[in-house]
Amino acid sequence: MISPTLPLFVRARGPDEFWRKRKIFKLAAHFRGRRRNVYSITIRNVHRALAYATKGRKLKKLDMKALWDTRVQAGCEQYGLSLETFKEALARSNISLNRKVLSDLAIWEPRSFEALVKLSRERAAIDCMPDLKERSVMNQVYGLTNWNKK
């Protein structure tokens, strides 16, 4: 009887190669033409697609961060307050809300957001923080007319 040697095991891949290739072909199932059927082409395109997917997830997070900041900034500008002052005053008041929650409050619960703006405006006035803008018509409509700028 001849015992199989290591080079013979390396050459005869058998079912392992089938399943390894099958994983790659499954990831390429939505591709067209040779990109889907030829392994050497498929593996390159699948790796590139996975790299783009990774970048896309990071870019999505950055886009959402920018969107939330824009929404909160628009809500703050209605009441004559800058975004930086608003966040700093909330932090000094020990109110820790993230961008997403502040954005949702600004859009879906304007009265709750107005209460946060009032709190932060008062804190900013007490601490003499910059960027407190003049009272606008919106401030008068929402009851911030009694605020005295120092």
Automatic annotation (TrEMBL):
Record key words, sorted: Ribonucleoprotein, Ribosomal protein
Domain of life: Eukaryota
Keyword DNA damage included in the entry's annotation: no
Cross-referenced InterPro entries: Ribosomal_bL20, Ribosomal_protein_bL20_C
GO CC, alphabetical: ribonucleoprotein complex; ribosome
Any matching Pfam family: Ribosomal_L20
Gene3D superfamilies named among the record's database cross-references: 6.10.160.10, Ribosomal protein L20
MF-aspect GO terms: rRNA binding; structural constituent of ribosome
Record GO biological process: translation
Signal peptide boundaries: none
Family: Belongs to the bacterial ribosomal protein bL20 family.
Protein name, per record: Large ribosomal subunit protein bL20m
The species this protein was found in: Glossina brevipalpis
Lineage of the organism: Eukaryota, Metazoa, Ecdysozoa, Arthropoda, Hexapoda
